[in-house]
User: Which sequence fits this backbone?
């Protein structure tokens, strides 16, 4: 019976450690319910690298998360929804850009606030967007254009 008791205790310890890790990871990654956030949307020609859970950043600071990403079958554009922290009030001439952290880095949505006196309301769509730049196509255009004189 002693061997069986040891197995149960070790199994319980493993389950407790896994549960603790999941709780820590969800808090650290900002996964979980976002309280104090409002929803905005934007339409991109290309949202390459953006997925649900992608950071939305303002001046390099995370202010939100992408909550949904779908293809609009009528316009063939990527429709992104994101939750923005309620403490961040964005002017209605704000732009959003699909940006990259570098050559091998991840992708995020960068918020470029405008100077309007009017602000976005929850559920509004940001009109001023810039899509992702494909590194492969950029390199191909550089290589292809470099030989022509």
Assistant:
């Amino acid at each position: 019976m002693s061997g069986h008791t040891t197995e149960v205790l070790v199994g319980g310890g493993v389950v407790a450690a896994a549960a603790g890790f999941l709780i820590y990871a969800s808090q650290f990654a900002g996964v979980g319910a976002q309280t104090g956030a409002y929803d905005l949307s934007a339409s991109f020609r290309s949202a390459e690298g953006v997925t649900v859970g992608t950071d939305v950043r303002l001046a390099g600071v995370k202010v939100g998360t992408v909550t949904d990403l779908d293809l609009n079958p009528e316009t063939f554009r990527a429709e992104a929804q994101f939750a923005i922290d309620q403490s961040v009030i964005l002017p209605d001439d704000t732009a959003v850009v699909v940006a990259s952290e570098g050559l091998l880095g991840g992708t995020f949505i960068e918020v470029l606030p405008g100077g309007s006196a009017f602000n976005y309301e929850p559920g509004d769509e940001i009109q001023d967007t810039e899509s992702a730049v494909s590194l492969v196509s950029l390199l191909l255009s550089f290589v292809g254009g470099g030989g022509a004189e």
